[in-house]
């Protein structure tokens, strides 16, 4: 039932790598362009482009390769670095889930069972 | 160097438990009131009160006990449930850190070493 959402902060600079950037990389791999990936995620193209730019500056080699123009507009695909980052992030999520599962279950055992009406609530603060 | 920030979502309702709520509980334990805890964290009292209210509704017994008024205003302290929630969340963070450390290091090994100027950048998207 419970789940853990993680963000990884890398290096002294604290480069943030979270589920949003990873989902964008996966969408680029699937859709073949940044614009199509952004559209598929309901994300503004500019925001997607900025996330890609940040990922590309963060690592020693780019995560996303953009092929320029032509009539159909530019395509984009993941480099081996990009695929590696996705794979490692998903592996970290798996490790985290396994490591914390029993402790999360212990927290859940004390949820108030009388609160079914809060099923769809999702509050702000963490 | 790297670190992982987690948020735990509990139950079907997805009650969010993250570092912010946990730090607030710890501050209440230390400061002895919600208002002093909020002040120590630079947080609006109303926001702190809402987080406490949400925590108190979420579990089978309240996490924070508020003693009413008098001249000095009401005090607040953690119940055994509140202390248990803090302890378990910090334990989950420890497990997560141990489980993911080598994988995070593997990601960090490919950071661009030429980006010292980004030391203080902290971007939005995840």
Q: How large is the share of residues in beta strands of chain A?
A: 15-25%
Element order of chain A: H for helix, E for strand: EEHHHEEH
Strand count, sense and barrel status of the largest sheet of chain A are: 2 strands, antiparallel
Order of adjacent strands in the largest pleated sheet of chain A: 1-2
Largest interface by Cβ-Cβ < 8 Å: A-B, 61 and 61 residues
The structure class of chain A reads: alpha+beta
Give me the Rg of chain A, rounded.
18 Å
Q: Give the rounded overall mean pLDDT of chain A.
A: 89
Number of strands of chain A: 4
Low-confidence stretches of chain A: 117-124
What oligomeric state best describes the polypeptide chains here?
homodimer
Helix content of chain A: 40-55%
Distance between the termini of chain A: 19 Å
Helix segment tally of chain A: 4
Shape of chain A: elongated
């Amino acid at each position: 039932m419970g789940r853990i959402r993680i963000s990884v902060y890398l290096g002294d600079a604290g480069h943030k790598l979270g589920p949003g950037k990873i989902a964008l990389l996966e969408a680029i791999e699937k859709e073949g362009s940044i614009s199509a990936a952004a559209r598929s995620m309901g994300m503004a193209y500019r925001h997607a482009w900025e996330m890609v730019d940040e990922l590309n500056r963060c690592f020693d080699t780019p995560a996303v390769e953009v092929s320029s123009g032509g009539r159909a507009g530019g395509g984009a695909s993941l480099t081996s670095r990009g695929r590696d980052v996705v794979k490692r992030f998903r592996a970290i999520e798996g490790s985290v889930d396994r490591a914390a599962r029993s402790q999360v279950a212990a927290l859940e055992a004390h949820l108030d069972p009388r609160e079914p009406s809060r099923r769809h609530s999702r509050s702000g603060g963490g």
